[in-house]
Design brief:
213 residues, six-stranded antiparallel beta barrel, 11 strands, 18% helix, binds flavin mononucleotide
């Protein structure tokens, strides 16, 4: 797959494309010599709608932490609930030496990003190019929050209004380190009725498209 198969998403639709609001991700960065790095993250969350910001946590000794601090850029790539892609996510989650390109180790293909230097991962469906807004160190971890500057996806994954087509994107999530190597499907959608009648309820309601996205 090449960049030609990717479509750019207009800014007013960016928060619709990062759904559900926390997603399994493989994050690409480059080091100060321009070498590509990729690592997997279960802690990736959209933390602001408008403008759209995405945050994640990473160990301070990890290449991703060093690269984010030295270059100020990262790309969040969202894989699907697909065995091959999830196997590749496990490979990019391994601890390779600094300078090793995990995309090559996992058999993944890089395509240039639109606005930042780290590449997008062609094989995965959705891409959020970010500039670091702030970082916070605590314990042995680094919290990273990035402002999204460009969003793109594989053609056919979103409707004309930018709402994800759940049966096409097949969002996935990580069960977490205690569940080593296991993932959950995160694309079965169910509307929940508003069962509270107070004024706060109508103030918070949004109109969603008929597809129930
Ligand atoms: C599915 C999956 C999810 C992961 N989530 C996180 C995470 O949220 N935070 C973290 O620090 N490490 C996480 N890891 C581990 C990192 O991907 C791993 O430490 C990796 O070696 C970091 O690579 P780097 O040194 O190239 O940054 C995860 C691993 C897998 C396989």
């Amino acid at each position: 797959m090449t960049a030609a198969h990717k479509i750019d998403i207009p800014e007013e639709q960016w928060d619709r494309v990062f759904a559900p609001s926390s997603c399994l991700a493989t994050i690409t960065t480059i080091d100060s010599d321009g070498r590509v790095n990729a690592a997997s993250f279960g802690t990736c969350t959209r933390v602001c709608h408008d403008p759209v910001y995405i945050a994640f946590t990473v160990g301070v000794v990890k290449d991703t932490a060093n690269n984010v601090l030295s270059t100020g850029e990262f790309v969040v790539n969202l894989p699907a609930w697909d065995k091959r892609q999830l196997e590749q996510v496990r490979v990019t989650g391994l601890s390779f030496e600094p300078g090793v390109n995990e995309l090559e180790k996992a058999g993944l293909t890089a395509v240039p990003s639109r606005l930042v230097r780290p590449p997008r991962i062609a094989d995965f469906g959705r891409h959020f190019e970010c500039e670091v807004a702030w970082t916070q160190s605590w314990l042995h971890r680094l919290m990273v929050c990035g402002k999204v500057v460009a969003v793109s996806c594989t053609a056919g994954l979103v409707d004309p209004d930018g709402y994800v087509l759940w049966d096409k994107v097949k969002s996935a999530h990580y069960c977490g380190a205690p569940y080593h190597g296991n993932f959950v499907a995160a694309y079965e959608v169910m509307g929940a009725d508003m069962v509270y009648n107070g004024p706060e309820a109508t103030a918070g309601e949004r109109t969603l498209p008929a597809s129930g996205s």
